[in-house]
Design a protein that fits this description.
Length: about 400
Amino acid sequence: MRYTDIAIIGGGLSGSTAAAMLGRAGISTVLIDPHESYPADFRVEKLSGHVQVERFLKTGIAESVLRRATFVGKNWIARFGQLLDKAPSRQFNILYDSLVNTVRDDIAASVERICAKAVSVETSPERQKITLSNDEVVSARLVVLANGLNVGLRRQLGIARTVISACHSISIGFDVVPAGRNSFDFPALTYFSERPSDRIPYLTLFPIGARMRANLFVYRGFDDPWLHELRRAPAETLNAALPRLKRITGAFDVPGEIKIRPVDLYVNDASGQPGLVLVGDAFATSCPAAGTGCDKVFTDVERLCNVYIPQWLASDGMDTDKIAAFYADPVKRACDEWSAAKAFDFRSVSIATSPYWAAQRWARFLAWSVQGLLRPLGGAVHLEPNFLGHSSSSSSSRSSSSSSLSSPA
Ligand SMILES: Cc1cc2nc3c(=O)[nH]c(=O)nc-3n(C[C@H](O)[C@H](O)[C@H](O)COP(=O)(O)OP(=O)(O)OC[C@H]3O[C@@H](n4cnc5c(N)ncnc54)[C@H](O)[C@@H]3O)c2cc1C
């Protein structure tokens, strides 16, 4: 049996960030994950916006990731084949496996890393027992469950899941290359839906190294034949759905594999479990189209590792009252509520046909147009491109509970 204060189950973005933070703080920690190196996987590929980057910086381990990512300081915004704005942006683009593996490189040697799956967890108000796929057993004061979308341990532990929206959105990731020329004209581009009936909120194109990545989001069923068409003839299907896109991008090809991932919105409730705390996707998922998943990951892990774990370890036991303080943390709750609200509002502003949401769509379009027109005048008026009606001359003015009518840049 191995003894530790903290056992982290899952070495994705949440678990690896927590392990790096706890290792720096000199807290006895074990990280359990079946993969020595995080494998290629389609998840977040872009850390963007002041708020998200600032949340990452608060963990204290962002520097090496941000250095490794492809930085883009300007993002073109377009709709109806018209360029609306060349907005300043703060995008750090990086594939998910590189992101997680760079965070893992920052984990101190004092953190023990076990390459195995946790197959069962027994919790109590004192010590927790974790049995691994290699038959080892770990005894910990606290289990941080950061196992993402995996359902096995949740069922074994009897953690209740509430599905808030099944197949809320579908994320599609692929590379694009310009046809018949060497490069695209834009540094990065967000192209918004032309018609709500296409059920596409937006397409975002952004460089990662020499590649131009595309993340396309759609609100469709996973069995929708449109997805089959997209796989079969990607450039043609995209051009049919966004007929004026080519005015901005020029002709393009889609050379490689297309990854399609549906996302359910759910929340897991483990508040009745002593000795166990859920973070990141293991606690609740987010809508990738709203781009808030990493805000939730960084907020969860920063609050847990900077505030609660040091407090909890300072006294005996790990009962449910201690754990409840984390789930009630006002910063965490505000971030979770903002993320959930944004998932629904963003869906409505993209595809709802009521007069209210149609007006919101037009207001957004006008705001971007005005901002794009005023920008050459020296920024005397500065509307935030992603937060309709919210000034952003200072990033701190954008509270995490601000308007949901925003999109990731
Ligand atoms: C397609 C897609 C696009 C996205 N785009 C964005 C975006 O643009 N912006 C944004 O902010 N967010 C985005 N997100 C959300 C973001 O990627 C996730 O919120 C984040 O990756 C969650 O990280 P995690 O560490 O909680 O989970 P994961 O990264 O899934 O990590 C879970 C880890 O647990 C391990 N594990 C599982 N079971 C066990 C076990 N039994 N024992 C040990 N280890 C185990 C796995 O091996 C894995 O390493 C997107 C998500 C998806 C799916």
